[in-house]
Amino acid sequence: MIDLVPYLPGFLAAYAILAVGAASPGPAVAMLLGISTVQGRGPALITCCGIATGSMTINLLTMIGIGLLLSQAAWAMNLLRLIGAAYLLWLAWGAFRKALNPPKVSVEAAVAQSAHALFVKGYLLQVTNPKAIAFWLAIAAIGAANGAPLPVIAAFVAGAFAISFAMHAAWALVLSSRPVRAAYAGGRRWIEAGLGSFFTFAAFKLATAER
User: In degrees, to the nearest 5, what angle opens at C-alpha 151 toward C-alphas 149 and 154?
Assistant: First the structure.
C-alpha cells in the first residue's frame, strides 16, 4: 500500500492554490451563470465536469513538462492566448445574441444542448484559459508529486479533479437556485449583455496581455 503521508504537505499547498483559482470569479463562472439560469442545475453540473476535466488535462500536461515548455516558449503562449481570446469572443457573440433575443427561462430549454456539447464547452474554455494554466504552473513549481510513484500521482490528479469540480459545482448550485433564476428572468437582457461585455473584455485582455 502506498504511503501518502510524506506527500501531504505538498498536496495541501497545491490544492490550496487550485481552490483559490477555481473559486475566483472568471470566464468559467460567467459561463456557468448563463447555463445555470437558463438551462438549470443538471446542464450546469455537466459543464462543471468539462471544466474539471480541462483542469485535469492542464494538470497532466504540466506534470509531464509541457506546461513548463509553454511558459518558456513565447510563440506557444501567444498562440494559446489567441485561441483563448477567439473562444471568449465566440461566447460573447452568443451572449449578445441572447441579449437581443432573450430566451425563455425554462429548465426544459436544456434539451437545446446535449450533454456532450455542454461538456465540450466547459472543457474548451478551461484548457484555453491562461489563468488556469498560470495556476497550474504555480502548482507545478511546488512539486507536490515530483518523483512519486504512479499511484501517488493518480491520487493527486484525482484530488485535483474533485476540487475543481466541487468549487465550480458550488457556483452552479447557487446560480441555478430559484431566487437567482427569478432575478435572471427579470433582467436577463441586461445580464446577457453584461456577460457578453465581460467575455469581450476578457478576450481583449488575453489578446493584448504581456507574456
Answer: 110
**Which residue in 150, 171, 157, 148 sits closest to 24, CA to CA?**
171
Residue 116 sits at φ, ψ, to 5 deg, of: -65, -45
Residue range 116-122: mean pLDDT, rounded = 94
Phi-psi region of 25 (alpha: psi -120 to 50; beta: other; left: phi over 0): beta
C-alpha cell at 13: 499547498
Q: Residue by residue, what is the 3-state secondary structure of 10-71? A: HHHHHHHHHHHHHHCCCHHHHHHHHHHHHHCHHHHHHHHHHHHHHHHHHHHHHHCCHHHHHH
Closest by CA to 31, choosing from 46, 10, 20, is 46
- For 117, counting Cβ atoms within 10 Å of its Cβ (0-12 exposed, 13-18 middle, 19+ buried), the class is middle
Q: What digits encode the pLDDT tens for the residues 155-183?
A: 889 999 999 999 999 988 887 777 776 77
Taking only Cα atoms into account, the Rg of the chain, rounded to an integer number of angstroms, comes to: 18
Three cell numbers at 21? 483559482
Global confidence as pTM: 0.69
SS3 category, 114: coil
Q: Residue 24: in which H helix or E strand, if any?
A: none
8 Å CB contact between 87 and 124: yes
Helix (H) or strand (E) holding 177: none
| Grid cell at residue 177 | 437556485
